[in-house]
Amino acid sequence: MGYRIVIADPLSEAGLEPLRRDPEVEIIDVSHEDDPDALVRALRDADALIVRSRTKVTRDLLDLAPRLKVVGRAGVGVDNIDVDAATERGVLVLNAPNGNTIAAAEHAFALLLALARRIPEAHASVKAGRWERQRFIGFELMGKTLGVVGLGRIGSEVAKRARAFGMEVLGYDPYLPESRARSLGIEPVSLEELFRRADIITLHTPLTEETRNLIRRETLALMKDGVILVNAARGGLIDEDALVEAVRSGKVAGVALDVFAEEPPKNAELLALERAVFTPHLGASTVEAQENVARDTSIAILEALRDRPVRTAVNLPEAPSPEAAELLRLGERLGTFAMDVLDGPPVAVDVTFHGEISEAEREFLVRAVLKGVLARQLDVRVNLVNARTLARQRGLEVQETWTSTSTGFPFLVQVRLRGERGSAVQVSGTIVEGLGPRIVEVEGFPVDVPPEGTIVFAHHVDRPGVIGRVGMIFGEKGINIATMIVGRREIGGEAVMLLAVDHTPDEDTLAKLLDIEALRSVKLVRLG
Ligand SMILES: NC(=O)C1=CN([C@@H]2O[C@H](COP(=O)(O)OP(=O)(O)OC[C@H]3O[C@@H](n4cnc5c(N)ncnc54)[C@H](O)[C@@H]3O)[C@@H](O)[C@H]2O)C=CC1
Ligand SMILES: O=C(O)CCC(=O)C(=O)O
Known about the structure:
The chain is of the alpha/beta class. The chain is built from 18 helices and 22 strands. One of its GO terms (biological process) is L-serine biosynthetic process.
């Protein structure tokens, strides 16, 4: 089965090489089409969509792509993608966050140096035949204090370069440990202190509700008179009207912008400012960065299409380990098992983890369990991306507990699915080295079965002859029993039976089983 991958925005041809050489991939490149319907037509049977920043991946656009599995952003910011809408539809969103870090950091410096040495104006003057050496007096970076807001990939590279220029570097990032800032030679400070002390402020945060209009009248008022501002992150971080006022009043002595609230910018007052340097969102526009992000996105898209863990997923936590696939299989099958055995619709899932299991593994397992529970009930595609969202939408309560109590297994995942009117099912599993996922407990009875294929699950009373009669019924129907596991707590007491069968028994066979007096209930579990 091939994959149809739509490319909506121009990307580096060299970076697309992993897709071009994959025999299973068909590329539909509409990036140079003038007709806006070309994208709509291409999306009808697309498996993946790759964008840079031009294409807006809206809820409506996603509705036109019923087969879409993944959207790849060849860059960092995903603010051109409606990630919530993608998540609801089970569409994975991924980005390429590492490939353009250096390009963006160097561009922030290019902007700052261009502003400091008045290069754009001086260049224009020379081109116009003038030689105005007295007009273009700049300022040096050495000894100045740079305030870096956002100390992630780009912010920390900017800080490194600033140190090399002999600048003192202050940094503000509420999500980064102070020790990390210090190890980069950055003095961690509050945002207010950064605003008060910095000669030059450069922004490197994503655009979020918290960072929108980070630079506005009130925050500008805190800054030094004659401050310099650089923004190569997102236009929405600055209230442009407030900025225009501050530049006109001299509060801000210069501004260098690569990004604008609206792109291309329409704010004539902003564009008319002197002591300003503007570029048309070029931060990531180097040959190297574009090749990097296109390659990283191509590789990640192929991983996603082949259901392999993706490190740069935006709406899915980072895959926990190379063994993630086994964990996912275990979680999903425990969910399916519980769902198939439960009487009536589920109202709550309690997932209890015992032993050594990381936070990332727990998150993946919970999503996998929910996927197993929900896939039986819903028409819509359920996957790890939308499992939590769908559970919430359907009012399925999810409780997670993690205890360090030893169970004899390195780790154990216990799923308790609760239904209406007090019904409940409990099933636990683990991964056994060399054997893979195993179900090791059902309804409090110890068992040991791989969560595979079709399983007949029965409650019975531990009496002689029951197992023989069950075997006979299957034999008469020509159904081979691959494995039979019986769990009991005491001789002659309540017991459970799990029979892995090679063919799915029909209703008649199940009814015959129920005729056995000692058999209390029989359920068919289909684990795929
Ligand atoms: N001009 C261009 O072409 C490019 C622009 N960008 C922009 O730069 C931004 C940063 O990119 P990276 O450094 O790669 O991202 P990153 O995720 O590595 O770093 C962002 C940092 O901002 C911090 N942050 C979040 N909220 C904050 C707040 N309220 N105050 C202070 N810090 C906060 C985070 O903790 C994180 O450390 C991207 O989100 C994107 O919008 C990225 C690449 C190219
Ligand atoms: O694709 C581009 O050039 C924009 C880069 C960018 O802003 C990002 O990666 O967030």
